Amino acid sequence: MNIYISFYLLFIILKMEETNINKNINYSLELLRLILSFWVVAHHCYKYVYIFSKVTFHVPIFMIMSFYFYYKVLKTKNSIKIKKRFLRILFPYIVWPILFFISNNIIFKLFGFSQYKRKLSLKDLLLQLIFGLNFHIVFYYQFILIILTIAFTIISLLFHKNFVFIFLILLIIAYSFQYDYWNLYIFNQYSGVIKYSLGNILELLPFSVTGIAICHLNIITKLKALKELSIFFSLVIIFMIVKFDIFVRIKGFWYPGILLNIGGICIFIIFSLVSFQNKILIFVLKIITKFTGGIYYLHLIIYNILKTKIDLLKKRTFNGILIIYIINYIICYVGNKISYKIKLLKLLFN
Predict the structure, then answer these.
(1) DSSP class of residue 254?
(2) Domains of the chain: which residue ranges?
(3) What pTM was computed for the model?
(4) Which pLDDT does position 123 carry in this prediction?
(5) What DSSP character marks residue 26?
(6) CB 159 within 8 Å of CB 169
(7) pLDDT per residue over 299-332, tens digit each?
(8) Percentage of the chain with pLDDT > 90?
């Protein structure tokens, strides 16, 4: 598929879509979601993956953002919003693997080949649903998100006004386990499915606490008084992190050490302080930043299906990444439209 055809299809969607602009949404953070989602696709599908792997900010920032917005729910103990969050995470976490499992086995039985190149067993499905990481690896993030959401919700209910202090203690413990290599030692002895899911909990926990702390301390609002200076120093810190080894790099699973947290904070601050005023730009951003969840869930499936058919994907080029992202966007757009008003089904694509 030509890259221009992909952009043309996206343009048609932009022309067809009618949407109202919500003034309460920070569209610069929505843009950040899009960038991070594209970063994930590039991380998995680009031949020069080391460019994106040198500082893997994408998942840490997703975690910071997720719990930044969840803080007010924890503070108010809003049971309705807590249930909605769990439903939003759990439904695609359970449904997509089951659909992949069924379709894979049907295709394998009929044609002798399939997405995963073998017939999946019930044990495979069970491991996938328990750990989020077996035949469809990207759901390890949802697994950890579920674990941390459950833990933080229980702690907030038990400790009421002091729950943020408890979270900070957990952050200190998590980093202690990382820098003493206890986390690596404990989980490295298990199989890949177990060690990467459980081992990454303590590596991603500090980012979730960071998001909560930023919201709790109202840091973004306070920095708005020094907007330009805050953005400048954040950019300087990111440059220093990327260009020079100013932090000790430690061994771990995928996201060890404080380096990624500091870089993630700086990127989050920059996008939180930037605002867009142009209505046309905001309109375009509202449309193109949709379906980041669905794109995350599906991009590896679509890539593996099409990589032997589209030369740009086979060669893992940058244009290939754009094609994969746009195709996934179109699939999620159509899936969202087909779902109509069934909110549960929409969760599979949003």
Answers:
(1) S
(2) 1-20+291-350, 28-275
(3) 0.90
(4) 94
(5) -
(6) no
(7) 999 998 888 888 888 888 888 889 999 999 999 9
(8) 61
